[in-house]
């Protein structure tokens, strides 16, 4: 198919632990707009790694997406750990100089910021802490004196006394530091993936960095994924609707999914009527059809059946 | 079963496919007496060892194909494609899924990628 031929240089998918990551934002944009693949963002913020509402780079591609890109010669698989060569002294010195320059820049920015709001300076924080400590000590002394003077009169009612006010911890005044964590390693002079980039799935398998597809089920998934993709569909994970994929007629940001799809490995693999009922009813309720995608590994062809509730019975 | 008024129409089918007899009988009665379809006919589908039921919904003029099966059966994608072929490739078939407690549910299976109705 001529439309699947690459027009630019192949993308470099960084493989680590048999997963393919994309770190470059430009590459992510290309994958989304030109190759019509969505991937999944997995990067969290370094200091808030448990929040997962807003994720960013790196993007992890579904294995089916990786196979599709590599087979279309739109991407190569890079054995990422091997792409970091031993840096030379000169390279390290240049890197170190650059880091220093950046650090100086950051310090200058910090100084500029604290000048504008003196309350943020470290000196001010220190003074404030001292003031609060003094205040607290005075309040404690006063409370102790009161308690001593009233103790004799109110011994039996003391349980009703309101609990002693716990001094609120001083409001934290953080001095914020900005630490830039580079997402991509490609600018490093010692990063060179030319010796460990694989242009075919088979060569990547031979090198031991990639496994998918390794059996009939995975071949069926790759075949079905390609079949739907070639029809212009966008695919996302189907777990929310109990299928293998959610199938969108265009970019998921613009369209609702019309289908949930499940993959049947072969024309003879078991399909129970209960599955048809479950998929069909869920799809109908969510205004989707369910696609049964039957893979034929001998013909390397996929055919589809759409399930909908009949509307009666 | 033999005493049932519907038996006569199915007499040539039910003894031939004893395993599917229950669901064919149940689907036929539901289509004829509950859904009140017209022009109801029975089509022998030897390749999948059962009969299909064709007919038209009340006040419509489109012939639909109903293929009965039991909830306890195990089907396959190939089985479904064969059924389509045996019925000379209609755009859709209705799979009538029957269960032991006499409940029945119909699902529409269409060839290819067919968008859901809005």
UniProtKB/TrEMBL annotation, chain A:
<dbReference type="InterPro" id="IPR016690">
    <property type="entry name" value="TSEN34"/>
</dbReference>
<dbReference type="GO" id="GO:0003676">
    <property type="term" value="F:nucleic acid binding"/>
</dbReference>
<feature type="active site">
    <location>
        <position position="256"/>
    </location>
</feature>
<dbReference type="GO" id="GO:0000213">
    <property type="term" value="F:tRNA-intron lyase activity"/>
</dbReference>
<feature type="domain" description="TSEN34 N-terminal">
    <location>
        <begin position="13"/>
        <end position="80"/>
    </location>
</feature>
<dbReference type="Pfam" id="PF01974">
    <property type="entry name" value="tRNA_int_endo"/>
</dbReference>
<dbReference type="InterPro" id="IPR011856">
    <property type="entry name" value="tRNA_endonuc-like_dom_sf"/>
</dbReference>
<protein>
    <recommendedName>
        <fullName>tRNA-splicing endonuclease subunit Sen34</fullName>
        <ecNumber>4.6.1.16</ecNumber>
    </recommendedName>
</protein>
<comment type="function">
    <text>Constitutes one of the two catalytic subunit of the tRNA-splicing endonuclease complex, a complex responsible for identification and cleavage of the splice sites in pre-tRNA. It cleaves pre-tRNA at the 5'- and 3'-splice sites to release the intron. The products are an intron and two tRNA half-molecules bearing 2',3'-cyclic phosphate and 5'-OH termini. There are no conserved sequences at the splice sites, but the intron is invariably located at the same site in the gene, placing the splice sites an invariant distance from the constant structural features of the tRNA body.</text>
</comment>
<dbReference type="InterPro" id="IPR006677">
    <property type="entry name" value="tRNA_intron_Endonuc_cat-like"/>
</dbReference>
<dbReference type="GO" id="GO:0000214">
    <property type="term" value="C:tRNA-intron endonuclease complex"/>
</dbReference>
<keyword id="KW-0819">tRNA processing</keyword>
<feature type="active site">
    <location>
        <position position="248"/>
    </location>
</feature>
<comment type="similarity">
    <text>Belongs to the tRNA-intron endonuclease family.</text>
</comment>
<feature type="domain" description="tRNA intron endonuclease catalytic">
    <location>
        <begin position="221"/>
        <end position="300"/>
    </location>
</feature>
<feature type="active site">
    <location>
        <position position="288"/>
    </location>
</feature>
<dbReference type="InterPro" id="IPR036167">
    <property type="entry name" value="tRNA_intron_Endo_cat-like_sf"/>
</dbReference>
<dbReference type="InterPro" id="IPR059049">
    <property type="entry name" value="TSEN34_N"/>
</dbReference>
<keyword id="KW-0456">Lyase</keyword>
<dbReference type="GO" id="GO:0000379">
    <property type="term" value="P:tRNA-type intron splice site recognition and cleavage"/>
</dbReference>
<dbReference type="Pfam" id="PF26577">
    <property type="entry name" value="TSEN34_N"/>
</dbReference>
From TrEMBL, chain B:
<keyword id="KW-0819">tRNA processing</keyword>
<dbReference type="InterPro" id="IPR018593">
    <property type="entry name" value="tRNA-endonuc_su_Sen15"/>
</dbReference>
<dbReference type="GO" id="GO:0004519">
    <property type="term" value="F:endonuclease activity"/>
</dbReference>
<dbReference type="GO" id="GO:0005634">
    <property type="term" value="C:nucleus"/>
</dbReference>
<keyword id="KW-0255">Endonuclease</keyword>
<dbReference type="Pfam" id="PF09631">
    <property type="entry name" value="Sen15"/>
</dbReference>
<feature type="domain" description="tRNA-splicing endonuclease subunit Sen15">
    <location>
        <begin position="26"/>
        <end position="117"/>
    </location>
</feature>
<dbReference type="InterPro" id="IPR011856">
    <property type="entry name" value="tRNA_endonuc-like_dom_sf"/>
</dbReference>
<dbReference type="InterPro" id="IPR036167">
    <property type="entry name" value="tRNA_intron_Endo_cat-like_sf"/>
</dbReference>
<dbReference type="GO" id="GO:0006388">
    <property type="term" value="P:tRNA splicing, via endonucleolytic cleavage and ligation"/>
</dbReference>
<protein>
    <submittedName>
        <fullName>tRNA intron endonuclease</fullName>
    </submittedName>
</protein>
<keyword id="KW-0540">Nuclease</keyword>
<dbReference type="GO" id="GO:0003676">
    <property type="term" value="F:nucleic acid binding"/>
</dbReference>
<comment type="similarity">
    <text>Belongs to the SEN15 family.</text>
</comment>
<keyword id="KW-0378">Hydrolase</keyword>
């Amino acid at each position: 198919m001529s439309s699947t031929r690459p027009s630019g240089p192949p993308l470099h998918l960084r493989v680590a632990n048999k997963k393919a990551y994309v770190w470059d934002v430009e590459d992510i944009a290309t994958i989304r707009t030109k190759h019509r693949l969505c991937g999944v963002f997995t990067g969290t913020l370094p200091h808030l790694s448990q929040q997962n509402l807003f994720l960013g780079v790196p993007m992890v591609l579904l294995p089916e997406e990786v196979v599709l890109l590599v087979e279309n010669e739109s991407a190569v698989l890079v054995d990422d750990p091997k792409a970091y060569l031993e840096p030379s002294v000169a390279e390290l010195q240049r890197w170190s100089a650059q880091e220093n320059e950046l650090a100086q820049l950051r310090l200058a920015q910090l100084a500029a910021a604290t000048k504008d709001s003196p309350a943020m300076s470290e000196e001010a924080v220190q003074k404030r802490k001292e003031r609060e400590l003094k205040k607290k000590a005075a309040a404690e002394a006063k409370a102790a004196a009161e308690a001593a003077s009233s103790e004799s009169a109110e011994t039996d009612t003391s349980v009703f006394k309101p609990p002693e006010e716990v001094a609120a911890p001083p409001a934290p005044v953080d001095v914020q530091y900005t630490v830039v964590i580079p997402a991509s390693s490609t600018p490093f002079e010692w990063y060179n993936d030319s010796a460990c980039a694989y242009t075919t799935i088979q060569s990547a398998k031979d090198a031991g960095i990639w496994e998918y597809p390794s059996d009939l089920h995975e071949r069926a998934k790759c075949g079905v994924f390609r079949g739907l993709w070639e029809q212009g569909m966008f695919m996302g994970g189907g777990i929310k609707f109990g299928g293998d994929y959610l199938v969108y007629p265009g970019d998921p940001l613009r369209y609702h999914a019309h289908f949930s799809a499940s993959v049947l490995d072969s024309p003879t693999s078991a399909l129970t009527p209960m599955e048809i009922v479950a998929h069909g009813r869920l799809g109908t309720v969510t205004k989707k059809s369910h696609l049964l995608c039957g893979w034929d590994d001998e013909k390397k062809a996929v055919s589809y059946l759409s399930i909908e509730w009949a509307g009666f019975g | 079963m033999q005493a049932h008024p519907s038996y006569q129409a199915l007499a040539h089918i039910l003894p031939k496919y004893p395993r599917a007899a229950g669901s064919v009988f149940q689907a036929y009665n539901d289509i004829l007496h509950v859904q009140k379809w017209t022009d109801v006919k029975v089509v022998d589908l030897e390749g999948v060892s059962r009969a299909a039921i064709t007919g038209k919904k009340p006040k419509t003029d489109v012939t639909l194909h109903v293929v009965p099966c039991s909830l306890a059966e195990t089907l396959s994608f190939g089985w479904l494609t064969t059924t389509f072929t045996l019925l000379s490739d209609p755009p859709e078939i209705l799979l009538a899924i029957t269960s032991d407690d006499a409940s029945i549910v119909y699902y529409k299976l269409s060839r290819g990628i067919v968008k859901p109705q809005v």
